Amino acid sequence: MSAEPIRTPPGPWCPDPMRQQRADYTVEDLLNLPDDAPRVELVDGVIQVTPSPTLGHQDICGLLWLWLRSHAPVGFRAAQAVGVRLSANTSRQPDVLLCRAEVPSDRSMLRPADVVLAVEIVSPGTRRIDRFAKPGEYAAAGIPFYWRIEQDPVHVYAYRIGDRVGPGGERQYEVVTDSADVIELSDPFDIKLPIGEITP
Q: Is residue 101 part of a domain?
C-alpha cells in the first residue's frame, strides 16, 4: 500500500517564466491578475514586482498626496500608486500623481492623457529607474509634468515637457526648478510648496 501524496495549497502568484522570457505580457493581463498578486509594473512585456517601500518613502508619499489634495484647484485629483498605461505592454505606478478630476473613481489603470503630473520618490533600489527610465517613459507618453523627490535630505526636482527631442524622436523633460526649501511653480497650477511640509 502506498501513501497518497500530501496536497499542499498552491504558492503565491508569480509571473509565468515562459511568458516573461517571451516578454509578451500586456496591460490587459495586469487587469486580470489574481487578488493575491503583488504590486507590479509592466515594462516592455515583462512583469516586474515592485519592492516594498520604506517608511520614510511612504511618509513623503502620504504628505505630498495630502498637500496636493488640499491645494490643487477644482479639476484636479491627487492619487497614490494608481497604474498608468503608457503603451500596450508597459504600465507604471507613480508614487503620487495628479490626474483630471473627471476620471471615474472605479478606474485602476489611467491613460497618459488623464495624468497631469507624475511623481516618483527615489529610494536606494530605484535610483536608476526613477532618475532615467521612468521620466523617459512618462515624457514619451506625453505626461506634461514630472517631479523627482530625493530623500535625506528631501529635495524636489520639477520637470516639464520641453522642445528637446530624444534619439527616438520623443520629447523629453527639462528641469523647471529644484529646491530643498520651497518649490514655486505656475504649472500645472500656482504652487508654493514648502519642502518642510512633505518632510517626515
A: yes
pLDDT (average), residues 171-181: 95
The pTM assigned to this predicted structure is 0.91
Sign of CA dihedral 176, 42, 48, 109: positive
Q: Which of 121, 127, 179 is nearest to 151 (CA)?
A: 121
Q: Say if strands 46-49 and 40-43 run parallel, antiparallel, or are unpaired.
A: antiparallel
One domain, residues 99 and 34? no
**For a pLDDT cut of 90, what percent of the chain falls above it?**
78
Q: Are 135 and 159 spatial neighbours (Cβ–Cβ below 8 Å)?
A: yes
CATH code for the domain of 91: 3.90.1570.10
Element at 69 (helix H, strand E): helix 55-71
Q: Which residue matches cell numbers 515594462?
A: 43
110 is a domain residue = yes
Which domain range does residue 183 map to? 55-198
Q: Contact, 164 vs 172, CB < 8 A?
A: yes
